Every structure is written in structure tokens, then in C-alpha cells.
Amino acid sequence: MEGPGSEGAAAAPLAQWRSDFSRLFQHYLDRSTPHTVNRWLGTLAVAMIYILRVYYVQGVDPELEALDGASLPTKGADEFRPFVRRLPEFKFWYSITKAFIVAFMLTFISVLDVPVFWPILLCYWIVLFVLTMKRQILHMIKYKYVPFDIGKQRYTGKK
């Protein structure tokens, strides 16, 4: 019969392996930080493998995340910064790479292979876009900001 401390003894090697793996993984992440181009090329390769996998199984994955946009200072004491990154490049790279890897792994689970009628998927995407961009769109409307140029304005002189 096993004593009350036997569960801890069995879990100790697993915890040690997990700690070692986490430390090694963080070491390689830290070493990859200055190699921006190589990291993005690796992410592009992962994305292409994922796209090929989705094409091969003829499926679609419409995963979207809502991100907060940068905001202007609201108090006089706030320092004006024209462009403040809320999400550093490294964290963005890490998140998008992790998302592609997880999405790639999920393509192998047949339970998640649900047929989707494309117009419904398009409507779903439009609703998600409007809900996540509502604040930014209202801000652009309030300050009469048009992010695209519809053509050059032409001023006609007095005739």
C-alpha cells in the first residue's frame, strides 16, 4: 500500500521536466529576440504550412481577436506621444505564431471539422469586425477621419 506522499514523488520528475523545458524554451525565445527577420520568416513558413493544411482538408478557420487600439491623452498631465505601441512586436510575433501552431494542430481533430455555409461565415466575420472595431470607427467618425482617399478634391475657381 502506498503512503500519502507517493503522489508527490511521482509528480516530482514531471514537475522537474516541466521546469527544465520551460527554462530551455524561454532561453531560445530570449535568443531569438534580436533576429526579427528570421522570426517572421519562420512564422511565414508556419502560416504557409497551416494554409496548405487547411486547403488540403478543405476547411476554414475564422479565428479573430479583438485588440484595443492606441488612445490619445485625456488629461493635461499626460505626455503626448503620437504613436504608442500597446503590443510590442515580439509579443505580437509570439502570439500569432502560437495561434498558427494551435490552429494547425486543431485541424487534425475530426470533431472540429464542422461544415460551414460560406455566406453565414461572411456575415459572422462582418459582425465580429463591426463589434471589435466599433470604438475605432466611432472615433474616426467623431474626428472626421477618412482612412482612405476616394480621389483628389478638385476646387473650381469662380466663373
TrEMBL record:
Keyword annotations from UniProtKB, A to Z: Membrane, Transmembrane, Transmembrane helix
Domain of life according to the entry: Eukaryota
One Gene Ontology term from the biological process aspect of the record: retrograde vesicle-mediated transport, Golgi to endoplasmic reticulum
Zinc listed as a keyword: no
A single cellular component GO annotation: Golgi membrane
Pfam families: Rer1
Transmembrane regions listed in the UniProt entry: 37-56, 92-110, 116-133
Keyword Hydrolase listed: no
Subcellular localization, as worded in the UniProt entry: Membrane
Mode of membrane association: Multi-pass membrane protein
Function: Involved in the retrieval of endoplasmic reticulum membrane proteins from the early Golgi compartment.
Family of the protein in this entry: Belongs to the RER1 family.
Name of the featured protein: Protein RER1
UniProt organism field: Prunus yedoensis var. nudiflora
